[in-house]
């Protein structure tokens, strides 16, 4: 018997593939002129200075899909800066992530966060998944390229079975649905896309030991080519669950090539995995850690 709430939500979906301009897709949420839509809507830049960062959010809400964004991160000494691209439900969009105290039991979120560092040191790519207000599922990576020299594509594939994080179409993480084992999974609440650039030098760079050098400000990160091949929540949709199921992302997993690539990434470039942190979980690792080869 299908969940009536989920069935009702799906009946209000539009299946859409969009790659329109940032004018059409996004709203600037904070930072004023520090956030700029450029090149007739094809590019968007976020800046951070000593007074404020900046951010934007999608006009649409999505329930499952493939969401792509190209980013070029803050160059040079980016210590203390955090650049983000993520989807979230139950979030105060007018405040940067670090200033929001998430208390709602219904909070869902899927995160890409890019933690800057001093010149010559690599960015840390921080990923996390929240469901029903529960997070603490962090994995972190260093990249195999310079993310400040050119644009690269960061992707969230989200369906009812799993979440896949990809970089330039290379899978770096899979978080599977283990609701049958009591692990919450975000699958019934629509989420918006968010992005921001803000100062987090109290914790982001080497645990807060390296502070932001404001002589390098303003710091700027660039976004372009947002694409949403996704279910858009809307009251006028005539989409059905069968249409949704025909989308490639609706059942996307890892084939043999994908398993080889994610094994390479996690072996060579992963720097933190919550499923290996026995000090953090002295009473036993989270239940999903023993149920999936790739998380």
Structural topology:
Blueprint (H helix, E strand, L loop, with lengths): L3 H7 L2 E6 L3 H4 E5 L4 E4 L4 E6 L5 E5 L3 E11 L8 E9 L18 E8 L8 E7 L8 E4 L9 E7 L3 E6 L2 E7 L15 E8 L19 E15 L7 H5 L10 H13 L1 E4 L22
Antiparallel strand pairs: 1-15, 2-5, 3-4, 4-15, 5-14, 6-11, 6-15, 7-8, 7-14, 8-9, 9-10, 10-16, 11-12, 12-13
Structure in words:
The protein has 4 helices and 16 strands. The radius of gyration is 19 Å and the shape is globular. The chain is 10% helix and 38% strand. It is mainly beta. It has helices at residues 4-10, 22-25, 241-245, 256-268; strands at 13-18, 26-30, 35-38, 43-48, 54-58, 62-72, 81-89, 108-115, 124-130, 139-142, 152-158, 162-167, 170-176, 192-199, 219-233, 270-273. Mean pLDDT is 86; it is low at 1-12, 91-103 and 236-243. The chain starts with a helix and ends in a 22-residue tail after the last strand. It has a single domain, classed as Jelly Rolls. The strands form 2 sheets. Strands 1, 3, 4, 6, 11, 12, 13 and 15 form an 8-stranded antiparallel sheet that branches. Pfam families: Glyco_hydro_16, XET_C. Glycans are attached at residue 117. It comes from Mikania micrantha. One of its GO terms (cellular component) is apoplast. The active site is at residues 109, 113.
């Amino acid at each position: 018997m299908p969940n009536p709430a989920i069935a009702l939500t799906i009946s209000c979906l539009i299946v859409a593939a969009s790659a329109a301009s940032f004018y059409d897709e996004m709203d600037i949420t904070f930072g004023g002129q520090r956030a700029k839509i450029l090149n007739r809507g094809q590019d968007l830049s976020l800046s951070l200075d000593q007074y404020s960062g900046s951010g934007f959010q999608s006009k649409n809400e999505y329930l499952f899909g493939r969401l792509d964004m190209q980013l070029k991160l803050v160059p040079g000494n980016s210590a203390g800066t955090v650049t983000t691209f993520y989807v979230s439900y139950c979030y105060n969009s007018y405040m940067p992530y670090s200033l929001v105290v998430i208390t709602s039991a219904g909070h869902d979120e899927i995160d890409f966060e890019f933690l800057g560092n001093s010149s010559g040191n690599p960015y840390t790519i921080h990923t996390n998944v929240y469901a029903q207000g529960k997070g603490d599922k962090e994995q972190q990576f260093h990249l195999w390229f310079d993310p400040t020299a050119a644009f690269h594509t960061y992707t969230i594939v989200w369906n009812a079975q799993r979440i896949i994080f990809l970089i330039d179409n290379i899978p770096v993480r899979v978080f599977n649905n283990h609701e049958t084992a009591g692990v919450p999974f975000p699958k019934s609440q629509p989420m918006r896309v968010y992005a921001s650039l803000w100062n987090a030098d109290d914790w982001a760079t080497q645990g807060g030991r390296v502070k932001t050098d404001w002589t390098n400000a303003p710091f700027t990160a660039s976004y372009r080519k947002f694409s949403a091949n996704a279910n858009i929540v809307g009251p006028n949709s005539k989409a059905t669950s069968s249409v949704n199921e025909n989308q490639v992302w609706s059942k996307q997993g890892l084939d043999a090539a994908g398993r080889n690539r994610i094994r390479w990434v996690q072996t060579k470039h992963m720097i933190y995995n919550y499923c290996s942190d026995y000090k953090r979980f002295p009473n036993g690792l989270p239940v999903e850690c023993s149920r999936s080869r790739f998380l």
